[in-house]
Amino acid sequence: MNGATLIATGLAASFCVLSLLHIGWALGPRSGRVQVLPERDGAPLFRPGPLSTLAVAAVLFLAALLVTQRAGLGRELLPPALVAPGCWGVSVALVLRAVGEFRYVGFFKRVRDTAFARMDTRLYSPLALLLGVGAGYVASTAP
């Protein structure tokens, strides 16, 4: 198993777990999720509905398909011409997510005293950066 294959496998597993987590949020109870949404004055900045949460789950699953297909794992389910650009798109989107929008989200956020901000600094932004760099590696090195 080469490096791109190993990284693609880890990325795909991560994207699938994150996708399932979003499906659970879309279909399950809505309480107790303050730490997953940026907040201002103790209230979430936005309240995603079930459809938008399922859309995020679908995009995460698509990311899993892109990296596995780019690494040559499994069946080709996506048009080959879209796979490499799609992997690069996943990479760029996640690295930009890690950098953030400079106020509530990302490494360079100014608001740092909320439950979300603490989780974002400890987990969400580092994970986004790691997944983004991994997707870029798979995009650039896979056959």
Structure description:
It is a single chain. By secondary structure, the chain is mainly alpha-helical. The protein has one domain. The chain has four helices and two strands, in the order αββααα. The chain has helices spanning 3-27, 50-70, 80-99, 115-141, and strands spanning 39-40, 43-44. It has a two-stranded antiparallel sheet. Strand 1 (39-40) and strand 2 (43-44) form a beta hairpin. Helix 2 packs across helix 3 (80-99). The two termini are 13 Å apart. The mean pLDDT is 93.
Short description:
The protein is 65% helix and 3% strand. It has 143 residues and is mostly helical.
Residue share in β-strands? under 5%
**Uncertain segments:** none
**Beginning-to-end CA distance, first to last residue:** 13 Å
* Overall shape: globular
Question: How do the SSEs run, as a string of H and E?
Answer: HEEHHH
Number of domains: 1
Provide the gyration radius in Å.
Answer: 16 Å
Which class do the helix and strand fractions yield?
mainly alpha
Fraction of residues in helix: 55-70%
Q: How many individual β-strands?
A: 2
* Mean pLDDT across every amino acid position: 93
Order of adjacent strands in the largest pleated sheet: 1-2
**Tally of contiguous helical segments:** 4
User: The biggest beta sheet, please?
Assistant: 2 strands, antiparallel
Task: Draw up the topology in text.
Elements: H1 3-27, E1 39-40, E2 43-44, H2 50-70, H3 80-99, H4 115-141
Antiparallel strand pairs: 1-2
Helix pairs in contact: 1-2, 1-4, 2-3, 3-4
